[in-house]
């Protein structure tokens, strides 16, 4: 067993399932206008989790695609993790009550670390932190802003918080199908005790095999795949068999 979980990504923009290139909202490819049906398809393909992001919400700082998220929850029985525009305990509680298994705090984690600690105490095991990095530095507000904080420094802030996972995305590779940033992902995982989920750039089964090789013995516990699944570059059955 590799201990690696595959998370198909459902990124929501204006109620539709899309994929962006390098986080650019103007460069969105629409893959489905029915998020519930897409979620059902990934569950039927054998995936054990779903990774859902409210892209409009990430920019707006508040949930925008709530109806689409609820449609996803109504169509699947597998656990769903959700990020994008969730900025306070009330928002976290509302989504957990609605059926979300794990809430991802991204911009809120970078700008309000106390919220992560409070959320982990209030909802143990239900909070993940999304670290989105551009050239190794944390980006926030739907990736529109880049800070001067190294990604690893943000991860280390939450080592004692009880975070269930750190989701590490290299923005420069996201949606580009050129492979994960294995070096930075492994470096981050080696500095943390919190499990790490890799994200950004998977373009082929070979990319997943490369991750599997370097993940052995590290805290890397999962990977998010988006465009490569939608484009058919990665077949669900082959990807799941690789990690089985």
Written description of the protein model:
The structure is a single chain. With 244 residues, the chain is an alpha/beta fold. The protein is 37% helix and 29% strand. It is built from eleven helices and twelve strands. Strands 1-4-5-6-7-10-11-12 form an eight-stranded parallel barrel, surrounded by eight helices. Helix 1 runs parallel beside helix 3 (66-75) and helix 9 runs parallel beside helix 11. It is globular, with a radius of gyration of 16 Å. The protein starts with a strand and ends with a helix.
Short structural description:
This protein is an alpha/beta fold. It has helices spanning 35-44, 55-60, 66-75, 89-98, 107-111, 113-122, 151-157, 182-191, 205-215, 227-230, 236-243; strands at residues 5-13, 16-21, 24-32, 50-54, 80-83, 102-105, 127-134, 137-140, 145-150, 165-170, 196-199, 220-225.
What labels would you give this structure?
eight-stranded parallel beta barrel, alpha/beta, 11 helices
Q: Topology, please?
A:
Layout (H helix, E strand, L loop, with lengths): L4 E9 L2 E6 L2 E9 L2 H10 L5 E5 H6 L5 H10 L4 E4 L5 H10 L3 E4 L1 H5 L1 H10 L4 E8 L2 E4 L4 E6 H7 L7 E6 L11 H10 L4 E4 L5 H11 L4 E6 L1 H4 L5 H8 L1
Parallel strand pairs: 1-4, 1-12, 4-5, 5-6, 6-7, 7-10, 10-11, 11-12
Antiparallel strand pairs: 1-2, 2-3, 7-8, 8-9
């Amino acid at each position: 067993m590799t201990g690696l979980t595959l998370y198909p990504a459902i990124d929501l923009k204006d109620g539709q399932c899309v994929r962006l290139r390098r986080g650019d909202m103007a460069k969105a490819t629409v893959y489905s206008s029915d998020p519930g049906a897409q979620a059902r398809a990934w569950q039927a393909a054998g995936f054990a989790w779903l990774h859902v992001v409210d892209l409009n919400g990430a920019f707006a700082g508040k949930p925008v695609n709530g109806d689409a998220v609820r449609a996803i929850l109504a169509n699947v029985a597998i656990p769903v993790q959700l990020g994008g525009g969730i900025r306070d305990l009330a928002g976290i509680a509302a989504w957990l009550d609605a059926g979300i298994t794990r809430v991802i705090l991204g911009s809120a984690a970078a700008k309000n670390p106390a919220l992560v600690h409070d959320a982990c105490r209030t909802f143990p095991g239900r909070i993940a932190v999304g670290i989105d990095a551009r050239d190794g530095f944390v980006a926030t507000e739907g990736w529109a802003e880049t800070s001067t904080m190294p990604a690893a420094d943000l991860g280390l802030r939450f080592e004692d918080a009880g975070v269930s996972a750190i989701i590490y995305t290299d923005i420069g590779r996201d949606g580009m199908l050129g492979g994960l940033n294995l070096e930075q992902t492994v470096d981050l995982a080696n500095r943390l005790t919190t499990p790490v989920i890799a994200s950004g750039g998977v373009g082929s089964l070979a990319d997943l095999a490369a991750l599997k090789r370097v993940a052995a013995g590290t805290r890397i516990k999962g990977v998010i795949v988006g465009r490569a699944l939608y484009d058919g570059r990665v077949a669900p059955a082959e990807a799941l068999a690789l990690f089985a």
